[in-house]
């Protein structure tokens, strides 16, 4: 690996390593819930960014399809660890809200900002509509897996008394769809994110990319534990609801920050790539991360396992958001007005959950 590539690796790792070190020092020094919460949130976001960069660099050494599978497997590691530790701590509302918040932050906030940035720079953005249509279809399936169990419980249907069994069925169905999607990617030689999104200048060696991923996986586990440990007390001190902290704070810290690349691509006029990057991230959470956590929660046991019967307002917010995204992207064009509408809807949803 060249000296320039070595410098690139160090430059990518250094900020994250520094933030993780600060978070560790504050955690073990018991600096206080608010300070620990802020430090661990920043460290978590930085680790997520480095994981995204390292998986991108694997594309220099693996086939496109293999790279896409790796991205699907490790791209959501920080959020997966946060949700597991939160489930262990009994913060079920935070887990539900953070998963839905990850989908909403990408599909509304990040995509909206991308359309605003792209519209500001190049005017009307034009993109191929087949991929957004496919992603919207799968997102609607995921929404159905959340809305229907919720309705069954709220309407007191016989199946509502079997929410755990119904959650397992829905999780297995979503994972089956994810497997079919992965198989289609392999058979067609495609990947989750287009190859053009990744800069090939100063490519990392395969060993460096794997080493960085391994280090980030371990860091994500520790930082997630510290983050959740400070989350409960910080919520009480700040006076925000568990739903808002999960929907906005946890979701952005663990997932959306790494996808600012989509905004940059849109600003460069690469609308096809921007839409694919952003919506694929939301899709992975919907059809992979959510069902995995359902199954993991049952394996962990506990008094309140994670099921798909969520508060009705969360289900409604999810359904309306996916519907709006479908309407905005189905014609293959978008501008600043579309972006402002998506960001506006995200702000409205966040405001609703500010009070609980």
Automatic annotation (TrEMBL):
InterPro entries: CaH_exchang (IPR004713), NaCa_Exmemb (IPR004837), NCX_ion-bd_dom_sf (IPR044880). It is a multi-pass membrane protein. The chain crosses the membrane at residues 99-122, 134-152, 164-182, 203-223, 243-261, 273-300, 306-330, 337-355. One of its GO terms (molecular function) is calcium:proton antiporter activity. Pfam families: Na_Ca_ex (PF01699). It is found in: Endomembrane system. Residues 34-182, 210-355 form the Sodium/calcium exchanger membrane region domain. The keyword Membrane applies. The keyword Chloroplast does not apply. GO terms for cellular component: endomembrane system; membrane. One of its GO terms (biological process) is intracellular calcium ion homeostasis. Keywords: Ion transport, Membrane, Transmembrane, Transmembrane helix, Transport. This is Sodium:proton exchanger.
């Amino acid at each position: 690996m060249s000296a320039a590539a070595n410098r690139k690796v160090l430059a990518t790792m250094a900020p994250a390593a520094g933030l993780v070190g600060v978070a560790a020092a504050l955690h073990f020094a018991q600096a206080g819930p608010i300070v620990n919460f802020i430090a661990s949130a920043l460290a978590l976001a930085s680790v997520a960014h480095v994981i995204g960069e390292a998986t991108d660099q694997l594309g220099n050494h693996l086939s496109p399809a293999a790279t896409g599978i790796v991205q699907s497997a490790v791209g959501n590691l920080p959020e997966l660890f946060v949700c597991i530790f939160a489930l262990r701590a009994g913060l079920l509302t935070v887990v539900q809200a953070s998963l839905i918040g990850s989908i909403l932050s990408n599909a509304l906030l990040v995509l909206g900002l991308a359309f605003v940035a792209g519209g500001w720079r190049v005017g009307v953005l034009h993109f191929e509509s087949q991929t957004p249509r496919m992603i919207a279809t799968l997102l609607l399936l995921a929404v159905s897996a959340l809305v229907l169990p919720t309705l069954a419980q709220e309407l007191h249907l016989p199946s509502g008394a079997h929410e755990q069994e119904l959650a397992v069925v829905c999780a297995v169905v979503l994972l089956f769809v994810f497997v079919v999607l992965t198989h289609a990617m392999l058979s067609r030689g495609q990947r989750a994110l287009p190859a053009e999104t990744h800069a090939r200048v100063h490519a990392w060696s395969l060993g460096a990319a794997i080493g960085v991923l391994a280090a980030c996986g371990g860091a994500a586990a520790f930082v997630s534990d510290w983050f959740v440990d400070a989350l409960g007390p910080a919520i009480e001190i700040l006076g925000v609801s568990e739903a808002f902290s999960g929907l906005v704070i946890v979701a952005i810290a663990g997932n959306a920050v790494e996808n600012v690349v989509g905004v940059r691509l849109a600003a460069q006029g690469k609308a096809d790539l921007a839409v694919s990057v952003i919506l694929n991230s939301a899709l992975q959470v919907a059809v992979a991360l959510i069902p995995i956590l359902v199954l993991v929660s049952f394996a962990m046991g506990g008094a309140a396992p994670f099921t798909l019967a969520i508060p009705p307002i969360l289900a409604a917010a999810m359904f309306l958001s996916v519907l709006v995204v479908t309407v905005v992207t189905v014609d293959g064009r978008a501008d600043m007005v579309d972006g402002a509408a998506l960001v506006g809807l995200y702000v409205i949803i966040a405001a609703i959950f500010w009070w609980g």
